Amino acid sequence: MTRDDEILAALAGEKKINSDQAAEILSAAKFTGKPVGEIILERKIASDEDLAKLKAGIFKLPYADLAGREIGESALNTIPAEVAKNYRIVCFERQGREIDVGMIDPDNFKAIEAVDFLAKGAGLNVHYHLISEASMALAMKQYDTTSKEINKALKTREEFVSSASGKKSEEKDKAVKIEEVTKSAPVVKIVSVVIRHAIEGRASDIHIEPVGRESRVRYRIDGVLHTSLILPLDVHDSIVARIKVLANMKLDETRIPQDGRIRLTIDDKDYDFRVSTLPLLGREKVVMRILDVSRQVPNLEELGFQGAALELTKKNVTNANGLLLVTGPTGSGKSTTLFSLISNLNKEGINISTLEDPIEYMIKGVNQSQVKPEIGYTFATGLRHFLRQDPDVIMVGEIRDTETAELAIHAALTGHFVLSTLHTNDAVGAITRLVDMKVEPFLLSSTLRLIIAQRLVRKICPYCRVEAKLPSDFLADLMAALDSLPPEYRRAQLKDAKADKLVFFKGKGCPRCGNSGYAGRLAVTEVFEVNEQIRNMLVEGKTVFTNEEISRTQLFITFKQDGYLKVAQGQTTIEEVISVLSA
Ligand SMILES: [Zn+2]
Q: What family does the Swiss-Prot or TrEMBL record give for this protein (predicted)?
């Protein structure tokens, strides 16, 4: 009888399942590859704790319940967090040389080997216990310093609330009470821990939202939201109120959305938080966008520009006049690229003005202005004013209407270098989009200099990079794209051009990348220059271009070619490239 059979037989003995169900669970386990225990829990045949007790009986191990138990630091750190998370084992008690270790699956010999190895090195005696999934989750949480600090703050808050509510005037003045709460030490502490951990984790945004009976805190890191904390719902309103106070918002207004900002200095660096609230069924959601004011603008190479794209871009940012466009959907890193270009142009003797929404980087010596459409200060009105301010270089956050398009073209025609972004999927789409906005093709022929289209993909974490195999159909697609490149270009980009010598990588996940296997992002690009041939076609009234037509006029590397090159170079994974190509 296997362990699985024993577990199912024990459940049958308790009349929780019949023999048909037992057989069905076994085949489901085989079919899905899930452990039998997981299926039992999913189908609610036994509770998490009951299953752990039952398994403890079968494995002849003591059962331990870690609910509500605070694990001492010395016990917890007997097994490093990484090992504990990987093997799902935890040390929950340490008395002298004796340690108590909890596990879910005693058949996991690798876990036992790892613990025995650690224990032997430290001269410790191990006592194994069987614990439930819930106990394991609780124990893992204690490794997380964020939850640790928050839990501490929550505890003092409970004491604070219970000592305050012991008095009779509980219902008195709610507004005054919330004012007090926002200043109470635990709430202040929770908010500051949430903010500090976001910065340490390189998050770009913090979301604090009510979900069911909890308040959820999520961080956006490298474009992906990760749940970082779950707090009791009763602190949600105090946390939101505290943030609203910091952001200078109206505390008593909870029915309409509000915007505000917070300036903070953390570890000698200045941060700007753009805060917005949204009313959601009686409670508010808060989103904070983090702007590191002192951060350096990355250069083009750091952004992921390489090969033909890099050369063409460098060649064209020295232009004295004309229009340069960066295109892509929201969140494709367009404005970072614009800033990188601008910081290259930023010298004394050149007047650079920008119109932005929002301001994402602060650059010394550049006149940066934030548009406010609600008071009539739009990209178009701002641009009109700019032209009176004798600028050399103008950056307009986005061209999204005919008026802005006309003004940008006018500025480019009258001797200015204009940089802006457009919302299009690919590089050739930019021309069509401008023509749709009623710009005459002949005006484009005399102003357009360069079009950059881009997408962001996540970079493989350098700390846990391992070789990976590509599925054969992916490999065929990738090889076809690489084969379509000019051979000498392909050789220059990939040191070894032979298909059977290509090596691919992935991140297997480690603590430094939060187990995602990725760290940081890079751009996949498509860049073309509006050269004489394209100018002539525009003058003749051609408004729709294909990638093939552009390729006939210059070395044009498409998204697919650039993305797959970056996979073959080991910078990113094929999954990342495919997901941005199909988006
Ligand atoms: Zn990693």
A: Belongs to the GSP E family.
